[in-house]
Specification:
Blueprint (H helix, E strand, L loop, with lengths): L1 H38 L15 E10 L9 E13 L4 E10 L2 E12 L4 E8 L9 E6 L2 E10 L2 E13 L2 E9 L7 E12 L7
Antiparallel strand pairs: 1-2, 1-10, 2-3, 3-4, 4-5, 5-6, 6-7, 7-8, 8-9, 9-10
Length: 205
Amino acid sequence: MNALKHLRTHLLLCSLVVALEPLQLFAQSNSDARTNLQQSPEERDGKHDFDFEIGIWKTHLRRLLHPLTGSTTWVEYEGTSVVRKVWNGRANLVELEAAGPAGHFEGLSLRLYNPQSHQWSLNFSNSNGGTMSQPTIGEFKNGRGEFFNQETLNGRAIFVRFVISDITPNSCRFEQAFSDDGGKTWEINWIAIDTRVKDEPDKER
């Protein structure tokens, strides 16, 4: 009889071990997940993404005269771009002046970094208009900046994409494209190749 009781007790203990094992595994899994969350890297801080561009640059610019009309007529300009650091790199100011067969123009771009979204907004103004355009918003990934917005062209809503690429200490490329089909296809209408002329001391504002 005692032997039978011992056997029943042994079987009961074995059953409890088998029943509790999944709970232990679940707890271990949750603990591992919490550890992974605690060790996950913080979001990338991009407040110095434009530091490479501070200085004076020679600009060679090509512009499509009539975007999204089927036109293939491009005009070229030569000019200068001056980029100044503001707020210790959390903003910068670009002054662009260029001239060519199609005329002369002056542009101003104020770029602002949002520490909450980790994104930049690019705000452009032409001296002929005197107002800021709709901000183009985006970020840098793997050395390439992509920025987007939505505007109206000839009464139609379009998407705008602005790309900064081919970045080296002494050169970079800027490209703007429009899409009137929801981003399925893009037509490039602005290409600028900048070559550094010289560094310029930071000017804090």
